[in-house]
Amino acid sequence: MSSSTGLTFADTPSLLVDLDKMEANLKEMADVAADAGVALRPHVKTHKSPELARLQLEYGAAGITVAKIGEAEVMADAGITDIRIAYPIVGQAKLGRLGRLLRSADVSVSLDSAEVAEGLSNLGQRMSRRIPILLKVNTGLDRVGSLPGQESLRLAEQIGALPGIELVGLLTHEGHALRSRSREEAKERAVRAGEAIVQTAELLRGSGFNIREVSVGSTPTPRDNAHVSGVTEIRPGTYIFNDLNEMTIGVATEATVALTVLATVVSIPADDRAIIDAGSKTLSSDGLVPAPDSGFGYIRGHPDIRIDHLTEEHGILALDAARDRLKIGQQLEIIPNHVCPVVNLADVMYGMRQGRLEREIAVLARGKNR
Amino acid sequence: MSSSTGLTFADTPSLLVDLDKMEANLKEMADVAADAGVALRPHVKTHKSPELARLQLEYGAAGITVAKIGEAEVMADAGITDIRIAYPIVGQAKLGRLGRLLRSADVSVSLDSAEVAEGLSNLGQRMSRRIPILLKVNTGLDRVGSLPGQESLRLAEQIGALPGIELVGLLTHEGHALRSRSREEAKERAVRAGEAIVQTAELLRGSGFNIREVSVGSTPTPRDNAHVSGVTEIRPGTYIFNDLNEMTIGVATEATVALTVLATVVSIPADDRAIIDAGSKTLSSDGLVPAPDSGFGYIRGHPDIRIDHLTEEHGILALDAARDRLKIGQQLEIIPNHVCPVVNLADVMYGMRQGRLEREIAVLARGKNR
Questions:
Q1: Which of A305, A307, B55, B253 has its CB 3.0 to 4.6 Å from that of A319, i.e. a possible disulfide?
Q2: In the prediction, which pLDDT does A9 show?
Q3: pLDDT under 50 in chain B at which residues?
Q4: Interface pTM (ipTM) of the complex?
Q5: A191 by DSSP, 3-state: which?
Q6: Alpha carbon of A32: minimum distance to chain B alpha carbons (Å)
Q7: Is A89 within 8 Å of A144 (Cβ atoms)?
Q8: What is the pLDDT of residue B9?
Q9: Of A90, A344, A369, Cβ closest to residue B328
Q10: Cα distance from A22 to chain B (closest Cα, Å)?
């Protein structure tokens, strides 16, 4: 079996997806959502594949989340119609694209400023409709978002009366859970984020806003905060594949990691060093969030071999007795630190079933950073 | 003017190439090579564009350098026929592709082991030809390569008699010059690398090897080591665009940087923080080599605003009085730390002439990590 380029999956570096494990991950998270009685709206930035987004919907997802309009365009082109863009839409170019997208899909967007709300309000008025919006609330990640409580209420009051938009909910991304030093701390942060956004929703409702959706997101947290009373939706992304970040924080194990990078040893120039053909163009330069400076991935079966540093096309392994332990041409299977940017660097993933290639999965929304 | 996707270059994040500056950079490096009497063989990994590779040839380059066969395939498809693959070719899949490539292009390859030489020897014998090879010499980067002197001679003796290949030269990549703490140290490393490989070439010649090519590479070094007597070729890459690495080490200035990332402020959630739409999916996660921990790029006109950290779609700026100094929708022009992975993350670059879009430049060899 070979791809359109004449390569086989045995050429490296390649992304291998264990389809059985991936499907188990999809089922498990669908069960988490069902048990908690909340909607599951996966962030598709992890896989960037309409095929896998459809599979998530088949496994019970209510819709999908994307970061950028370009990702939404790819998903809408593939017939996916319930899309949340968890990103502030800024500028006429993007508003024009959102307008076109709204003709074929149900799209809601998040924002944290009156400026962004006004742009959407103008678009909604021109289209004679009300674009559903969610306020982004900063529950501790300190990236975008208004603070829980009064600051979010003030923003709601500023934008709540604007025509052309409808404030339907609140949304947070508690990605700071991954920066925790322990599973317990991550759990505490998840619960606290859920409680903060639920309390803010209640505050806004008390001021007359019809807040119907209270959405939390990130992979390590749903098991901890989907049950927080008042949360209506979870938006995990990485769970479909898992990665070393999730293993380190304790919500995945080597057995539940569904995507690995196959690489080949191409040089053993010294006895304390070997070189693989997967560098930062394959593994990305992302460090491990819960444990920075711990290298660039985990080599299955070789826990003591450190992926010490990367250049674009070289992964530099640090180990003792390299010439005894490895040989040129040997293939190694790597669990990456952070799977999302790894997928973004690939054009295709190889879907494997019990060690055999079942199908290729195109990364159609790769590179859609606009 | 708009691209096939309906975007204009005013949508962000976008890569803008100042064509006048780029052409000046191409001319300057061609002059460096001509002055030193050496061949210029640019590494095209920086731009990944056949159009720009052809321009380099028009400006006097003798041929091109690539890292992976996939890059060579794209360049050969575009009619470029003199290609050096500065990477060990390992495995039947890649040897098969190299065989097809050799039918349409003059390809030489570098290696640092008998194992890789034997694979190439078998291919050359099957094709009834001798594949030109260069030994990769480690002059201090400590990545691939045999050590200068006796270790390289021993490898030459191991592989020199193999049929199907012909040892034509030595090659080094003195990328460790960029890790220097000063321009002076970088210069010293460059000269030392040049001298080490020239001495190794002389050692091999003394043992009967016909070493015709002595090739050095990396952008900060040619001005320092192209003149080292015995060097025959330079292989700079980044010089076409330059970046913050090259500025920091002192071989480029803001005025000679030809590629910038245009980004938009999408959120100012606090007075000490603003968010731009260029994250690690645009700028890559590469730190600054000569000064790690100094952030993720330089914002033109705002030297005191730090690009503090990145997530995939967010650049988090640290600054005082953010709400006074920036506004949502404002565009910022960023000089990236390391331009090569930034280009690899893009599908297109926008070629600008005096502030106006002249043409789009497709990144056709993007993502070719095999």
A1: A305
A2: 56
A3: 1-8
A4: 0.96
A5: helix
A6: 26
A7: no
A8: 56
A9: A90
A10: 23
* Contacting residues of A for B93, CB less than 8 Å apart: 7-8, 10-11
User: Which pLDDT score, from 0 to 100, does residue B10 have?
Assistant: 75
* Interface touch B144/A267, C-beta < 8 Å: yes
Closest CA to B228 of B213, B211, B216, B210: B216
**B185 with B178: CB under 8 angstroms?**
no
* Residues of chain B contacting residue A329, judged by C-beta atoms under 8 Å apart: 90-91, 115
Averaged pLDDT, groups of 10, chain A, 370 residues long: 43 97 98 98 98 98 98 98 98 97 97 98 98 97 96 97 97 93 93 97 98 94 94 98 96 97 97 98 96 94 97 98 96 97 98 94 98
The shortest C-alpha distance from B35 to chain A (Å) reads: 31
Contacts of residue B113 in chain A, CB cutoff 8 Å?
A: 267-269, 328
